[in-house]
Amino acid sequence: MKIYDKAVWQIDGGIPYELVVNHFKIVFTWLNKHDMLSEEGKEELEDGIDGEASLNEQLLTQEGTSFLDKYYDKFLMAIAKETYGKNDSIEELDKLYQEYKNN
Fold first, then answer.
1. What is this structure's pTM?
2. Mapping DSSP to helix (H, G, I), strand (E, B) and coil, where does residue 14 land?
3. I need a labelling partner for 65 at 20 to 30 A (CA). Which of 19, 27, 42, 101 fits?
């Protein structure tokens, strides 16, 4: 199973818990809006995102996996410290999604 990100990795890396949880909420909500979450992923979102969140292929549709394979690392690099865990990062996801759809 491919794991793209874990909240614990970010928290252990020194990012404040609240920002990490918000980051995962933003990503899961965005993926859900674009029909990229599997039923298990939708359940994870509905149950509530916390510091144990893991973004992995079991939580994604085939398109979600394809998108994250190509763009998740690029997304993390683009948002850096300025927008990590903030709603501004949605714009970056939208931009990368347009690039994904155009390729």
1. 0.93
2. coil
3. 19
> Predicted confidence band at 81 (pLDDT cuts at 50, 70, 90)?
low
Q: How many domains does the chain have?
A: 1
DSSP letter assigned to residue 48:
-
Evaluated on CA atoms 84, 75, 93, 30, the torsion sign reads: negative
Q: Do 45 and 32 contact (CB within 8 A), yes or no?
A: yes
Under 8 Å between Cβ of 97 and 89: no
Mean pLDDT check: name the lowest of 32-41, 56-65, 67-76, 79-88. 79-88
Domain holding 42, by residue range, is 3-102
Q: Is 40 helix (H, G, I), strand (E, B) or coil?
A: helix
Q: What is the dihedral of CA 42, 47, 50, 54, to 10 degrees?
A: -40
Q: Give the start-end residues of each E strand in 16-97.
A: 54-56
